[in-house]
Automatic annotation (TrEMBL):
Residue ranges annotated for the GHMP kinase N-terminal domain, each copy included: 66-144
Family: Belongs to the GHMP kinase family. IspE subfamily.
Protein name, entry field: 4-diphosphocytidyl-2-C-methyl-D-erythritol kinase
Gene: ispE
GHMP kinase C-terminal domain ranges (all copies): 198-274
EC number, as in UniProt: 2.7.1.148
Recorded catalytic activity of this chain's protein: 4-CDP-2-C-methyl-D-erythritol + ATP = 4-CDP-2-C-methyl-D-erythritol 2-phosphate + ADP + H(+)
Domain of life assignment: Bacteria
Key words of the record: ATP-binding, Isoprene biosynthesis, Kinase, Nucleotide-binding, Transferase
The keyword NAD is assigned to this record: no
Active site positions: 10, 136
Species the sequence originates in: Paenibacillus shunpengii
Presence of keyword Kinase: yes
Length: 284
């Protein structure tokens, strides 16, 4: 038997850091939603009791470090599954980009193996398993749009924002999520974005409101380390995006655009100085 799962990328419409916790993680408030840029995961049964993994992408680990591998190992151990699986990752989401590609692959693997092995694990249990793999994995299990609190694993589902185009641009730099969080001084944050106002804008289906309330306190940290992220934001705004923000810990910058006719200009303008540019829709 073979199972296919789609693993979409996420963007953070707002991200606030409240304080550092005693376990080393940061208490956050984030509103996240999915975009139509996805990896495709194929899972098939194999005779040997082992986990095999492959990908067309040469630039991700294909061993125990791969989050899909870790997800399969966790399910096998926790549910005492004595069966093998071959996992193929067709990667489309840029890696280490702030788009949760690895987390979404892990979530899709958990969902897929639940079906492949007929385990009957509830969504809530899948989210708890996901939290053992990474803070963003529980959100990637359910998808949609959600307010995430705690270290990102506590979820309150929201309606989807009004449909629009999303132009994503990933500059060719590497950002470490742990380093970015490590550099945040939560007592020195000048302007906190508001989860409440973003939630209201979404509930009112106000595209202008969503653009106005975009905010990410990790942006200042990453821009200080990599000024090109700030330049990319400026370029996207100049080219006509309605609202612009860095996603997660970066370095991907996304622009929300309501009019389809504006998209080619923004896309082509960015392609001038950034190789990895995507124009997609929100996954609503
Ligand atoms: C910043 C965000 C925003 O959505 O996304 P990305 O930029 O990674 O996509 C997330 O909070 C990232 O979630 P995720 O990538 O799953 O992080 P984890 O693997 O759990 O943690 C990686 C490291 O980031 C730090 N970390 C993560 C989450 C959190 N709430 N506080 C933290 O301090 C910790 O140092 C941890 O060791
Ligand atoms: N299935 C996977 N896809 C992408 N990256 C993976 C995967 N498994 C492990 N990784 C590793 O996880 C790290 C973060 O990748 P990713 O999830 O794409 O970033 P982000 O959390 O910034 O969106 C990278 O260093 C990458 O090598």
């Amino acid at each position: 038997m073979k199972i296919y799962e789609k693993a979409p990328a996420k963007i953070n419409l707002m991200l606030d850091v409240l304080h550092k916790r005693s376990d080393g993680y940061h208490e956050v408030e984030m509103i996240m939603t999915m975009v139509d840029l996805a990896d495709r995961i194929e899972m098939s049964e194999i005779k040997r009791d082992t986990i095999m993994i492959s990908s067309q992408a040469g630039y991700i680990p294909l061993d125990e470090k791969n989050l899909a591998f870790q997800a399969a190992k966790l399910v096998k151990e926790r549910y005492d599954v004595k069966k093998g699986v071959y996992i193929h990752l067709d990667k489309k989401i840029p890696v280490a980009a702030g788009l949760a590609g690895g987390s979404s692959d892990a979530a899709a693997t958990l969902r897929g193996l639940n079906k492949l092995w007929g385990l009957g694990i509830s969504d809530e249990e899948l989210r708890l398993l996901g939290a053992e793999l990474g803070s963003d994995v529980p959100f990637c299990i359910t998808g949609g749009t959600a307010l995430a609190t705690g270290r990102g694993e506590q979820l309150h589902q929201l309606p989807n924002p009004p449909q629009c185009w999303v132009v994503l641009a990933k500059p060719p730099i590497n950002v470490s999520t742990a380093e970015v969080y490590g550099r945040v001084r939560s007592d020195q944050i000048q302007k906190h974005p508001s989860a409440k106002r973003m939630e209201d804008a979404i509930r009112n289906q106000s595209f202008a409101g969503v653009c106005k309330e975009l905010g990410n306190v990790l942006e200042d940290v990453t821009v200080k380390l990599h000024p090109e992220v700030g330049q990319l934001k400026e370029a996207m705004l100049k080219l006509g995006a309605d609202g612009v923000l860095m996603s997660g810990s970066g370095p991907t910058v996304f622009g929300l655009v309501s009019k389809e006719s504006k998209v080619p200009r923004i896309y082509n303008g960015l392609r001038g100085f950034c190789k990895e540019v995507y124009a997609v829709r929100l996954l609503t």
